[in-house]
Design brief:
two-stranded antiparallel sheet, Rossmann fold, N-(1-d-carboxylethyl)-l-norvaline Dehydrogenase, domain 2, globular, alpha/beta, single chain, 15 helices
Length: about 350
C-alpha cells in the first residue's frame, strides 16, 4: 500500500514544500498525488475572482502565496479536513498561531492509523501551553495529536528553494524508518538533508532567530533613513548578530533545552539565523518599522505581506512574557528592545536606548 502524503498549509513555505516533494516523487512508494490542505480564499487571477483551491487544481498556480511558480500536477488542494483520508505522512506547515486547528482532524472517520502515522513539523515559532509556558510547535502538536512529531528546520528561504536554488536543511527524527522515508521525500539534488535524532532545541533556534531577524531588519532600515539620528553600519549589524546569537543560546539553556552548543552549528542554528538576517519576512518587517508608528503598527506592517504571518512578532511576545515571569528580561536586552518596538512604543525609540547603553 502506498504511503499517502498530506501537507497541512498552502502558504509560501507549504506550497514550496509541496512542489519540492512532488517533483520527482517516487509514485511506487507514495502514490500519484499529494494532498495539500488549503485555507480557501478568493484570489484575483487574470482579472477574475477565483477560488484558490480551483486555481491550484485546475490552473496549477498559487498566485497568492507562490506567484510565478508552476504548481506540480501531482498536488491536489483540499479545503476540508474530512478530505485527508487514509494518509500515512502528515507534513505540518501552518503558522504556529493556527496549529490548534489540527485537533479537528477525525482520525477514525478519515481512516488514519495513528500508530503508523508519521508527522513532521515545518512550522516555526512558539506556542503557549496550558500552564502558560512557551513550547515548540512539534511539542505542541505531539500533545495535541498523541503521536511523536519529527521536525524539519534550517536556512530555508521559501522563494529561493521554489526557484531551485541550492540549500540544506536538518531533520530531527524519532525512528529509523522515518529517516528513510523523509530522505526519499525531501532529499533533492538542490535540497540537501542532514539528520539528527529529534530534539526540540532544533525548533527553539528556528523560533528565536525570527526575533533577531526583526532586530536586524530594524537596524538595516535605520541605516537608509535620513531622518534617523544615529549612524548604523555593517559593524552595527555584526554586533546585533553576535549578541542575538548569544541571547538565543542563553534562552535555550534557560528553558532546559539540551545539546545547544552542538546543534547551533547545524542548519537550524547559526545558518538559519544568518540567512534570516539577510532576507525573509521578519527581516523585511523590521526594515519597514521605520515607516510606521503608533498603536496600529502591527496591522499596518502585516498588511505588506499578502496575508502571510510575521512569526517573530508573536514569538517575541511569548519569550518576553516568559523572561519577565522569571524576572530575567533585563538580562536579554535585544529581546526586550524588539518587544518594546513592536508591542509597546510602536516606533524605534527603544533602539536608540539599546544602542547607546
Amino acid at each position: 500500500m502506498h504511503k499517502r502524503v498530506a501537507i497541512i498549509g498552502c502558504g509560501n513555505w507549504g506550497a514550496t514544500v509541496a512542489n519540492l516533494i512532488a517533483n520527482g516523487l517516487d509514485e511506487s512508494v507514495f502514490g500519484d498525488e499529494i494532498l495539500m490542505y488549503t485555507h480557501e480564499t478568493m484570489v484575483e487571477y487574470k482579472n477574475k475572482k477565483r477560488k484558490l483551491s480551483e486555481l491550484i487544481n485546475h490552473e496549477h498556480v498559487n498566485p497568492k502565496y507562490l506567484p510565478g511558480i508552476e504548481v506540480n500536477k501531482r498536488i491536489r488542494a483540499v479545503v476540508d479536513f474530512t478530505d485527508l483520508t487514509h494518509i500515512s505522512i502528515m507534513i505540518v506547515c501552518l503558522p504556529h498561531q493556527y496549529l490548534n486547528a489540527l485537533k479537528n482532524i477525525d482520525f477514525i472517520r478519515n481512516g488514519i492509523n495513528k500508530d503508523e502515522l508519521m508527522v513532521i513539523n515545518l512550522s516555526k515559532g512558539l506556542v503557549t501551553d496550558e500552564s502558560g509556558l512557551p513550547i515548540t510547535p512539534s511539542e505542541y502538536i505531539s500533545r495535541l495529536l498523541g503521536v511523536n512529531v519529527s521536525t524539519l528546520q534550517g536556512a530555508n528561504i521559501a522563494n529561493e528553494i521554489a526557484d531551485g536554488c541550492y540549500a540544506e536543511t536538518l531533520i530531527g527524527y524519532h525512528k529509523e524508518e522515518e529517516r528513510e522515508i523523509y530522505a526519499w521525500l525531501f532529499g533533492k539534488r538542490h535540497f540537501r538533508v542532514s539528520f539528527v535524532k529529534y530534539n526540540p532545541t532544533i525548533e527553539m533556534f528556528g523560533a528565536l532567530k525570527n526575533v533577531i531577524s526583526l532586530a536586524m531588519g530594524i537596524i538595516d532600515g535605520m541605516a537608509y533613513k535620513s531622518k534617523i539620528k544615529i549612524k548604523v553600519s555593517s559593524n552595527t549589524k555584526a554586533m546585533i548578530f553576535r549578541k542575538g546569537l548569544v541571547e538565543i543560546m542563553e534562552i535555550a539553556k534557560l528553558m532546559k533545552y539540551d545539546n545547544v552548543k552542538r546543534l547551533v552549528f547545524e542548519s537550524c542554528g547559526v545558518a538559519d539565523l544568518f540567512v534570516s538576517c539577510l532576507a525573509g519576512r521578519n527581516y523585511k518587517c523590521g526594515q519597514l518599522v521605520t515607516d510606521y508608528s503608533g498603536s496600529n503598527i502591527l496591522n499596518e506592517l502585516e498588511s505588506n505581506f499578502n496575508g502571510q504571518k510575521i512569526q517573530g512578532l508573536g514569538t517575541v511576545e511569548h519569550i518576553h512574557d516568559y523572561l519577565k515571569h522569571l524576572n530575567k528580561i533585563n538580562e536579554f536586552e535585544l529581546v526586550k528592545m524588539v518587544y518594546e518596538v513592536f508591542h509597546v512604543t510602536g516606533n524605534v525609540e527603544p533602539v536608540y536606548k539599546y544602542l547607546e547603553k
